[in-house]
Design goal:
Elements lengths: L2 E3 L7 E3 L5 E3 H14 L5 E8 L5 E8 L7 E5 L2 E5 L4 H4 L3 E6 L4 E6 L12 E2 L1
Parallel strand pairs: 1-9, 3-8, 4-7
Antiparallel strand pairs: 2-3, 4-5, 5-10, 6-7, 8-9
């Protein structure tokens, strides 16, 4: 999956108790991708890992695991999982899906990101 920093969201959103928000468009895309996998045990996991030119990098992937301290939110039947270490970095972040000429893939608008690199792949 592709990720990039994004500053605006045009779709209606639903707030999660964790503060992570998955737009309706992103939820539909995630649901479709999970259906393509042919599995009903997968959830979207969002994590923050060290890396990239700005220090921290987003990771979005499908996961069937449940880890101690995971925060799970449901968005119209799509479970979004954030590990306890990543949760503070992602509070208030909006995950969207764009399919435009200027942006394609999953985008993350994170109010906690003080700076991001020019490619939008990492933040600080």
């Amino acid at each position: 999956m592709t990720t990039e920093a994004h500053t605006e969201s045009t779709e209606a959103t639903t707030a999660a108790p964790t503060g992570v928000i998955l737009t309706d468009v992103a939820a539909v895309k995630v649901k479709g991708l999970i259906e393509q996998e042919g599995r009903d045990d997968l959830r979207l996991r969002i994590a923050v890992q060290p890396g990239g030119c700005s220090g921290l990098r987003y990771q979005l992937f499908f996961d069937e695991r449940s880890l101690d301290g995971d925060v799970v939110s449901d968005f119209d039947g799509v479970e979004v999982v954030v590990d306890r270490m990543s949760s503070p970095y992602l509070a208030g972040a909006t995950i969207d899906f764009a399919d435009r000429i200027d942006a394609q893939g999953f985008t993350i608008d994170n109010p906690n990101a003080q700076n991001s690199c020019a490619c939008g792949d990492s933040f600080h």
